Amino acid sequence: MTLQGTCDPRFAQVAEEFEANLATRGEVGASVCVIVGGEVVVDLWGGQAAPGVPWQRDTIGHVWSCTKGATALCAHILAGRGELDLDAPVVRYWPEYGAKGKEPTLVRHLLAHRAGLPAFHEPLPPGAFYDWKLMADRLADEDPFWAPGAVHGYHALTFGYLVGEVVRRVSGRSLGTFFREEVAEPLGLEFWLGLPEEHEGRVAPTIPADPPEVPPTFSIRAFTDPTSIPALLLANEGGYMALGESDSRAAHAAEYGAIGGITNARSLAGLYRPLSLGGGELVSREQLQIMALTESAGTDTVLAVPTRFSLGFMKAADNRYLPGLDGEGALLSATAFGHAGMGGSVGFCDPPAGLAFGYTMNKQGAGLGINPRGQALVDATYRALGHRQAGGGIWYLSAD
């Protein structure tokens, strides 16, 4: 497969793994970017964006839950400015949210997947996820599935509205507008929470993952217990997860802060570049330390596998030993944080290593984290930086 772009010779193994992804691991079209010490050392793309259409330098795509990192960053920017207190009750900023016993919910509970609102009890109307006010009102009036703060469970589809509504209430701007004005435009990123129509022709359509040989526990629960959180999450989402809907113009235009982001690897890594340098123009070093600290860890109430989250970001996790998740997880260093997207895209930073990383693709892989294609690129990057992978899958800087 012919690769396009640039690669510093020190990171040649990243290019080799990227080429192997396209040649032997089922990759269709993808991009990868590695930034070290603020300098781009890998910026590669290749394959097809659509049948007969080569992946170009400016091709963009749907990065699913990588979006959560962008949304969380907006909240931390406000927190760093003293405009948002992460330890304050949500009702300080969103008074209506206190209904149905949710008064004790703290802002940090929203960010750490501890709010107890990963799904809805009652059916949503078609197209609900394109109606911000409807979604915010429904969440404010929803009964929590567990006492706020008691446990953690992945808020796959609701995270963006929960955190985004607080951002909107505090800043007076919609989440997509705040992100564009405070992050994307100042950093020169091609990253949108609400894609302008003029860029629609650049989007590589999503290719769904092949069914796994052994379904994960989440999927088994979703299809065998209609009262379970996984079942309610997947079956009651207003039609967004229907085949092809996420590639619609309505989906791309929506300011969907959980899974709606559109970007490429260059801008996904660019999002984390200032954080890899100590916060840069976005947040202080003190706020960066808060962003990196693990807030939730252990068996996830929703996903039924071990997960680790800081305030809004994924941390390293190793689920490779679980049925249906062979090669799964997010094997980063202990100091890294970011977010993976459904199918395997990932963006993260590792401040002590000065590293910012982005990987996007159109062909999804099965599972709940980074699949072997993205993990191979992450592993090659850490090896090039002189790290070693210790027991448990976490990367550490080698003593020698």
TrEMBL record:
Taxonomic superkingdom: Bacteria
Signal sequence annotation: none
InterPro entries: Beta-lactam-related, Beta-lactam/transpept-like, Beta-lactamase/esterase
Coiled coil: none
Residues annotated as domain Beta-lactamase-related: 18-366
Protein name per the record: Beta-lactamase family protein
Native species: Nonomuraea turkmeniaca
